Amino acid sequence: MDIKVIEQTYKEVAKTLGWAVDKRVALVITTFYLTQGSGFRKKEHEEAAEVIKKKEGWTSPLKYYMFHIAAAFLALQGNPETGLEKLNVNQHKLNEAGFRKSSYTFLAAFLMQDENGASRAKELYDQMRQHHKFLTSGEDVPYAVLLGKREGTAEERAATMNAYYRELREHGFSIGNDLQWLSQIMTFNSSVYDPEVVGRVLAVRDFLQNEKIKIQPVQYQILGFLAITKASSAILQTIIDNTKKLENTKLFKWYKDAAFATAVQFEIADLIGNREAAAAAFSTSFEMIMQVQQAAMMASINTAIISSINNGSG
Asked: Whole-prediction pTM value?
């Protein structure tokens, strides 16, 4: 991880995205390009952004906080128009399967690899709702797509998710969507309950906290990713060192909450190594989910700030 490269790329991205785009979103885009093994592709990004503007209606979820992330993803694919067409086909299949159109179904559509993905995702999603009716929502669709294609029945995987959720709750994890996402990730390697996976999650959490890395609920899913990839103590130490380096830079001075996630993303390639293709695909998908969720968080923060200002001036 090269701090100077991150800072220089960020300047290029922020300038291209313009003053109207929150600088934290520019930071998300910067990390996305760099962790995909690519410098910022300004020309391709602008071309992809223009395709989205022309092809998508004003009510499209792609016109909001996902706009530049979608542009970056399409830019890296090489042909934005073809990529957007495939994205809309996948999104439509998810709608036909019973999912309501949203930014999360678009994200899930990015992650779909075959036409049967939608039906398998819906089967798993429905099983998840059997355990957490009010907690399971559209935000869970991307993970339903990712995990629906793995071996094991949807019923068994959902039951295992619930078991992980309940056990981690007893170990000090806060209940809610973040814990549910963590429990979902924990089933990636197997739909069968495995106490060792719980042990690894707790070990990773304790290791990080002992090094003064505060773990917020929004970062729970990262613990799951580190656990299922069996991150070594050496890799965890690298993540810790890089997190602290980022926190001390001018760029992350006001965004320290993003430093840990960014440090993890720069280590994803080393975490996966030469493992199965499915694991490598999952790492890319997981990174994209992280990027979108960070952008969504930034959008919600901006909305809260604007609302506060408007209420204060009323």
From this structure: 0.86
